[in-house]
Write a structure and sequence with these properties.
Length: 315
């Protein structure tokens, strides 16, 4: 039996009206960045972190009387940073929920950027503490209007030659986008829990797929799932509530240590919705997850033949 549900996000994310578009008809877009691998999988183990080795690689440092450019490059080469916040004219703006927005200063002398959908790269060149962009290499396809807007903003921002500021594990790029002062704050990826892609979000179930039929009819209660910033998740099936632990692993998430009440549902429809939720949340292995924006924001969770999708809650 294939079972699917849809959640609506309540707290975190970017509404279409908040997205500003660059007018760049020459851009072609590539690499649809979604998390869609079917099945409930056994957790993976192992893995090693990248280490920096800058020997033998030359970088363009521009003109720097103080030598600070060399110090900045030495501290950045071989490191990857993930964006946590965009500040436009002093106002913080959220990133699209679930998107991996990152930059990397490659040991090969190349600056790499990923805006949640498309890859961008160009030779590392700095003039003082300014990251200088001469030619951007990219091959892109459309990822939908919301991700396209985020990527186009990143491209235009980088073309403004942003100023680089570092403080330990924190990296700040300060530049411009559409005549606005923009700062993008990053943190070293090695220090960030993968859970941050879902942390602080709360979702409401709005649709359920049972036997290939999408339905939300007959529900008498509201069902929700929430991901907290301490790795704890909570859920309410509309009949029962519970808590557990979640751990994001790339495009999959592992739920564990679930405890919940076991009261009877009021209606058959409520009972079916609860069954779908528990099939996913109690899956003995990794659950696939994906966020898309083709029809508004959607979060989906899939395990074996069971699945559900999510969508943002209207204020």
């Amino acid at each position: 039996m294939e079972e699917t549900m849809t959640f609506r996000q309540q707290e975190k994310g970017l509404h279409p009206s908040d997205v500003q578009f660059m007018k760049s008809p020459s851009l072609a877009f590539y690499l649809w960045f979604v998390f869609s691998v079917s099945g409930c999988h056994a957790p993976a183990t192992g893995g090693t972190a990248d280490t920096a080795d800058t020997d033998g690689t030359e970088y363009s440092n521009g003109d720097s009387e103080s030598g600070s450019t060399d110090d900045v490059l030495v501290s950045l080469i071989g490191r990857t940073f993930v964006a946590r916040e965009i500040i436009r004219d002093g106002t913080a703006e959220p990133l699209l929920t679930g998107t991996l927005f990152e930059v990397r200063f490659g040991e090969d002398g190349v600056f790499y950027a990923f805006g949640g959908c498309n890859s961008i790269q160009y030779p590392i060149a700095m003039n003082g503490n300014t990251l200088v962009v001469e030619t951007i290499d990219m091959y892109m396809v459309s990822c939908g209007e919301y991700l396209d807007a985020q990527v186009e903003m990143l491209i235009a921002f980088l073309e403004s030659d942003p100023v680089v500021t570092t403080d330990g594990d924190t990296l700040v790029l300060a530049g411009f986008f559409e005549a606005n002062d923009v700062q993008i704050e990053f943190i070293d990826a090695a220090t960030v829990s993968p859970n941050w892609l879902l942390e602080g979000t709360r979702w409401e179930v709005v649709q359920c797929l049972v036997y290939d039929i999408i339905t939300s009819d007959g529900w008498t209660t509201t069902a929700t799932v929430a991901f907290q910033e301490n790795g704890v998740m909570s859920f309410d099936t509309g009949c029962n509530s519970g808590t557990g632990i979640f751990q994001v692993d790339g495009d999959q998430v592992l739920f564990s240590d679930l405890t919940y009440t076991e009261d009877a549902c009021l209606t058959l429809q409520d009972d079916v919705r609860e069954e779908v939720m528990l099939q996913i949340l109690t899956c003995d292995g990794l659950v696939d997850w994906e966020v898309t924006w083709s029809e508004g924001e959607r979060l989906s969770l899939r395990a074996m033949e069971d699945a559900f999708w999510v969508a943002p809650i209207s204020d």
